[in-house]
Specification:
By secondary structure, the protein is α/β, with parallel strands linked by helices. The chain is built from eight helices and seven strands; from the N terminus they run E-H-E-H-E-H-E-H-E-H-E-H-H-H-E. Helices cover 48% and strands 16% of the residues. Helix 1 packs across helix 8, helix 3 runs parallel beside helix 4 and helix 4 runs parallel beside helix 5.
Length: 257
């Protein structure tokens, strides 16, 4: 029996890597798509050594043609592509007076345009393979409520929730669902850097920076990447087949919906 294939962006580390490893344990073959090919190859090799099926693909998610090429490469190498996880993103701290046209373009291309390019590529392959599929986009707790000092990042994550809803409506007729997941404060290198920059901007230490984000977590602790991956596992699997256009919030109770 041919394994279903999941293509996961930004999966050479952090949340993306945790998602890839969880989906392998769920029975998927995975494409580790990342700008850092060396790191992606290490993750893919580690998965193969553990008995899983994985390939590494170099990808700049802001490059539309590159995205199309990477998805098709993964389908050629692994087979039956059924899941796209648009996980990659960047999160610079952006106090309002620091935002430049260049920074705006970079963050919106990496965080928002990438989701559109990924959906275009995946939908094309799903249709060629004669079946539907699942699109899973990374939003954020910061895309549910605006976060201080994160003007660009937060607004891109609101945008992702919107484009996910539009995709759900547009693609339902093709048997394709579109959902998003919204992590909270996860112990990843990116999150630690955000906390550090917020602290620097305020003239405080890193512990203060992290506390500005974590003080409102109902469960009283930061998230592990594996806990976010558990939510994505549900969205990628068949238990969520009757769910589309939704944002699954996995933030320890920072926001209630």
């Amino acid at each position: 029996m041919t394994k279903e294939v999941a293509f996961i962006t930004g999966s050479a580390q952090g949340i993306g890597e945790a998602i890839a490893r969880r989906l392998v344990s769920d029975g998927f073959a995975v494409a580790i798509a990342d700008l850092n090919l060396e790191l992606a190859e290490q993750v893919a090799a580690s998965i193969r050594e553990s008995g899983g099926e994985a390939t590494a693909v170099k990808l700049d998610v802001s490059d539309r043609e590159g995205f199309e090429s990477a998805v098709r490469q993964a389908a050629r190498e692994l087979g039956d592509l059924t899941v796209l996880v648009n996980n990659a993103g960047i999160a610079p701290t952006t106090p309002i007076d620091t935002i430049t046209p260049e920074l705006f373009d970079k963050v919106y291309h990496v965080n928002v345009a990438s989701c559109i390019w990924g959906m275009q590529a995946a939908v094309s392959v799903f249709k060629e393979m004669g079946h539907g599929g699942k699109i899973i986009n990374a939003a954020s707790q910061a895309g549910v409520v605006g976060n201080a000092n994160l003007m660009l990042y937060s607004s891109t994550k609101f945008a992702i929730r919107g484009l996910t809803q539009v995709a759900a409506k547009d693609l339902a007729k093709d048997g394709i669902t579109a959902n998003a997941f919204a992590p909270g404060i996860v112990k990843t290198p990116m999150m630690m850097d955000i906390a550090h920059q917020v602290a620097v901007n305020a003239g405080k230490d890193d512990e203060w920076g992290m506390s500005t984000f974590s003080k409102d977590i109902t469960l009283g602790r930061l998230s592990e990447a594996s806990e976010v991956a558990g939510g994505v596992s549900f969205l990628a699997g068949h238990d969520s087949d009757y769910m589309t256009g939704q944002t699954l919030i996995i933030d320890g109770g920072m926001q209630f919906q």
